[in-house]
């Protein structure tokens, strides 16, 4: 196949996605109102991702207050891999290589962290990509060294669910994933707000960020799995010590949880999309109510846990979240920048500081790689972005 043919096919794929996304956006505007997530379909109000400063016009926002000056530094050490299609989740392997999921292709690929060589493990059966749904977060089992299990969160034809699969490196490429074993199911699905981030915490429990699937009432309903952070055993049972008896719900009142991370003191933090006004970074406490849809951002209601930090929606749409060098780092989709939120010893946060504004387009996932090192995944081939040559990519960063 010639390079010209590949480029033509790539253009057709992107255009098809754009047409599908526009139709989805029109349906959502009729059923759910306007949303500023920076996810899924391009907005009809002109809020789709602006171009990058490296080759196109700079991103702009409507917040009258200027961004605070950036302290510390972020250095892009190298581009680890290019040519990824709709990457979403990232899981570092013990040997340093990386597993990355494709939302739309429903595949998991191994990336050699030294050479950037990509090897497809296989396609995950049962994934039904549409809108913001598809194959989303991935995580390794706490016992991966012995059980070789990879966990994944995906949208099926009926719900969002968590599965686990055996990764058998001895099998041929493309057939290295075992049949998915469903660990947990029944999470509400929608064209929008499917959540999708999963991570094993310091307590070896599985934490799952969910969205309210466009039905805002689910967030305040403790009997619903939508708009929650769930805490499960590795087998998918409600974890011991959860705040509500026999329930997987750990916290509620969330809109669309997209990032989970723990600091050095084992405190849990979550990044969450707002609707039209405020995106949130939350310090998560068991049993607490984070306010949606009654509150977006900070409020005067004592019943709601206020966010640790908040952003205008055009500046962030925080998807991934990681902790490194004493700060939380949030990857911004619509905002097209990496946010640093320095933590104080009390658990409070200093003012967020932006880096890489517009340089790499939409940023989907950020993962700590030890010390002052981060992995950063772009998201420009997801139907909303403006793909440049080489997109999508994984970057290695050094931060202070």
Automatic annotation (TrEMBL):
Cross-referenced InterPro entries: 6-blade_b-propeller_TolB-like, Glc/Sorbosone_DH, Quinoprot_gluc/sorb_DH_b-prop
UniProt biased composition (Polar residues): 44-61
Region called Disordered, residue ranges: 34-73
Signal peptide start and end residues: 1-37
Key words of the record: Signal
Domain Glucose/Sorbosone dehydrogenase: 84-384
SUPFAM superfamilies cross-referenced by the UniProt entry: Soluble quinoprotein glucose dehydrogenase
Cell membrane as UniProt keyword: no
Protein name: Glucose sorbosone dehydrogenase
Source organism of the structure: Streptomyces leeuwenhoekii
């Amino acid at each position: 196949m010639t390079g010209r043919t590949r480029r033509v096919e790539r253009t057709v794929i992107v255009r098809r996605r754009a047409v599908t996304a526009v139709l989805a956006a029109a349906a959502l505007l009729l059923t759910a109102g306007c949303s500023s997530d920076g996810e899924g379909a391009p907005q009809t109000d002109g809020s789709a991702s602006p171009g990058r400063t490296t080759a196109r016009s700079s991103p702009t926002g409507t917040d009258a207050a200027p961004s605070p000056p950036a302290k510390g530094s972020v250095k892009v050490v190298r581009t680890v891999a290019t040519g990824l299609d709709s990457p979403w989740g990232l899981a570092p392997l013990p040997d340093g290589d990386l597993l990355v999921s494709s939302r739309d292709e429903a595949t998991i690929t191994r990336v050699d962290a030294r050479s950037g060589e990509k090897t497809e493990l296989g396609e995950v059966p049962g994934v039904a990509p549409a809108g913001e749904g598809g194959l989303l977060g991935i995580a390794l089992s706490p016992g991966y060294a012995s059980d070789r299990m990879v966990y994944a969160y995906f949208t099926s034809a009926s719900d969002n669910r968590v599965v686990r699969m055996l990764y058998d490196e001895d099998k041929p490429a493309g057939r290295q994933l075992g049949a998915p074993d469903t660990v947990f199911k029944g999470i509400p699905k929608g064209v929008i707000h499917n959540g999708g981030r999963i991570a094993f915490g310091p307590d070896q429990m599985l934490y799952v960020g969910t969205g309210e699937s466009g039905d805002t009432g689910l967030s305040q309903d403790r009997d619903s799995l939508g708009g929650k952070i769930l805490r499960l055993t590795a087998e998918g049972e409600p974890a011991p010590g959860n705040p509500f008896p026999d329930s997987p719900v750990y916290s509620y009142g969330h809109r669309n949880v997209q990032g989970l991370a723990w600091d050095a003191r084992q405190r849990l933090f979550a990044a969450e999309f707002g609707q039209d006004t405020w995106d949130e970074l939350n310090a998560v406490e068991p049993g607490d109510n984070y306010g949606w849809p009654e509150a977006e951002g900070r409020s005067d209601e004592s019943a709601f846990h206020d966010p640790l930090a908040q952003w205008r929606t055009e500046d962030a749409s925080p998807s991934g979240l990681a902790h490194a060098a004493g700060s939380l780092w949030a990857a911004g989709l619509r905002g097209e920048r990496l946010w640093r939120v320095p933590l104080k010893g009390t658990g409070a946060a200093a003012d967020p500081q932006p880096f890489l504004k517009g340089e790499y387009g939409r940023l989907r996932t950020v993962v700590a790689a030890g010390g002052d090192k981060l992995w950063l995944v772009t998201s420009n081939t997801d139907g909303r972005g403006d793909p440049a040559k080489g997109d999508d990519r994984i970057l290695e960063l050094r931060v202070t």
